[in-house]
């Protein structure tokens, strides 16, 4: 799971987190997290975001509140999380037990030319989550910590927040369906059954 | 209502805040998200007192657009309550509604609209309808108390029947403009 840089490989980490996922619903922030969750296995319970930068954590909250018996995982990047950073306060106040947020932190804006993000200069997202009131957090830099990260996502003792420092190199683009209505409605059907398409 | 609050709340005798609450119940709205506005203060209290409605207070209104997307994924109908100044915070995030065809009804109390005292409210208040419509939102105004309930009803129906962002703008003519003692 280590890249040549000595940091965790993003795609192998994603593969490990989503192994034997059960009925886990996954929201991926725009950019590489979407390609990662798709590469390790496109799934009706995946919502890869083609836009709405800064939305991922709050989409996770809305889903977690609507489906309190289902685990919800948000996988996103450091730039996307920084754009919606106020969501940490909003989520910490609501305390959804079934919501986990994992930030794949490569310290760069990967889709736009690898410009540095604030985390490159020491901005500590775990400290910000703790400050907001998250009781359960992890800061992951070693592959041997990933099984505990996966266990925390499935533990249902959230809200849970983790940062994984990952290697900054890019992987092959593996694109999910590009029509968002398909992505949304296949997840709604997976959660609500065919009645989802008749909801008024 | 705090008498020192800067914004105007509806008159205690006004029926429309309770009528909006009744509409939220009729349409089985399960999540209400908001950045507070004095114009919505009584409605917010009614929602907070209702165990069947989950109320989420946001740090910025665009979080509410994302929250409505998540709620709909899980089968919950949601609405966003905000002041017109908050509409400006939502603009790019409204693309989520078009990407996914997600219903997103918004109930907006206007500032910077009719008899406004505060110059800082004018730019966004004057632009509210234009920017919402630029992002493909169906916008209907309610400028009399009697217009509010039917307009909100239509806004909620059109969102969930036709899968898009919709908004009711509740005019400042209804709520009244705070004068900061300069009556």
From TrEMBL, chain A:
Residues 48-161 form the Thiamine pyrophosphate enzyme TPP-binding domain. Gene3D superfamilies: 3.40.50.970. One of its GO terms (biological process) is small molecule metabolic process. The keyword rRNA-binding does not apply. Pfam families: TPP_enzyme_C (PF02775). It comes from the Bacteria. One of its GO terms (molecular function) is carboxy-lyase activity. InterPro entries: THDP-binding (IPR029061), TPP_dependent_decarboxylase (IPR051818), TPP_enzyme_TPP-bd (IPR011766). The keyword Lyase applies. Keywords: Decarboxylase, Lyase. This is Aldehyde dehydrogenase. It comes from Neoroseomonas lacus.
From TrEMBL, chain B:
The keyword Lyase applies. Keywords: Decarboxylase, Lyase. It comes from the Bacteria. GO terms for molecular function: carboxy-lyase activity. InterPro entries: THDP-binding (IPR029061), TPP_dependent_decarboxylase (IPR051818). SUPFAM superfamilies: Thiamin diphosphate-binding fold (THDP-binding). Coiled coil: none annotated. PANTHER family: SULFOPYRUVATE DECARBOXYLASE, SULFOPYRUVATE DECARBOXYLASE SUBUNIT ALPHA. This is Phosphonopyruvate decarboxylase. It comes from Neoroseomonas lacus.
């Amino acid at each position: 799971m280590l890249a040549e840089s000595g940091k965790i490989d993003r795609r192998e980490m994603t593969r490990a987190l989503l192994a034997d996922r059960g009925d886990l619903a996954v929201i991926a922030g725009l950019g590489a997290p979407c390609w990662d969750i798709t590469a390790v296995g496109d799934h009706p319970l995946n919502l890869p975001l083609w836009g709405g930068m800064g939305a991922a954590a709050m989409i996770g909250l809305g889903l977690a509140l609507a489906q309190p018996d289902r685990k919800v995982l948000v996988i996103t990047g450091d730039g996307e999380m920084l754009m919606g950073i106020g969501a940490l306060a909003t989520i910490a106040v609501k305390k959804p037990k079934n919501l986990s947020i994992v930030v794949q932190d490569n310290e760069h804006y990967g889709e736009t030319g690898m410009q540095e993000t604030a985390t490159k200069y020491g901005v500590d997202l775990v400290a910000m989550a703790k400050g907001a009131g998250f009781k359960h957090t992890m800061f992951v830099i070693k592959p041997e910590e990933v099984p505990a990260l996966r266990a925390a996502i499935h533990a249902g003792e959230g809200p849970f927040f983790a940062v994984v420092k990952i290697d900054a190199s890019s992987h092959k683009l593996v694109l999910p369906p590009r029509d968002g209505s398909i992505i949304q409605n296949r997840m709604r059907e997976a959660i609500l059954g065919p009645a989802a398409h008749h909801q008024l | 209502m705090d008498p020192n609050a800067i914004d105007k709340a509806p008159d205690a005798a006004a029926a429309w805040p309770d009528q909006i609450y009744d509409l939220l119940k009729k349409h089985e709205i399960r999540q209400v998200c908001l950045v507070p506005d004095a114009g919505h203060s009584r409605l917010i209290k009614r929602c907070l007192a209702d165990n069947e409605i989950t109320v989420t207070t946001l740090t910025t209104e665009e979080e509410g657009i994302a929250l409505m997307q998540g709620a709909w994924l899980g089968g919950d109908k949601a609405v966003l309550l905000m002041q017109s100044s908050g509409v400006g915070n939502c603009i790019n995030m409204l693309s989520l509604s078009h990407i996914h065809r997600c219903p997103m009804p918004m109930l907006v109390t206007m500032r910077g609209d009719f008899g406004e005292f505060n110059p800082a409210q004018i730019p966004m208040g004057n632009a509210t309808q234009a920017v919402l419509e630029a992002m493909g939102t169906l916008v209907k105004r309610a400028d009399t108390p009697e217009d509010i309930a039917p307009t909100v009803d239509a806004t909620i129906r059109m969102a969930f029947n036709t899968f898009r962002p919709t908004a009711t703008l509740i005019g400042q003519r209804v709520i009244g403009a705070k004068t900061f003692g300069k009556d």
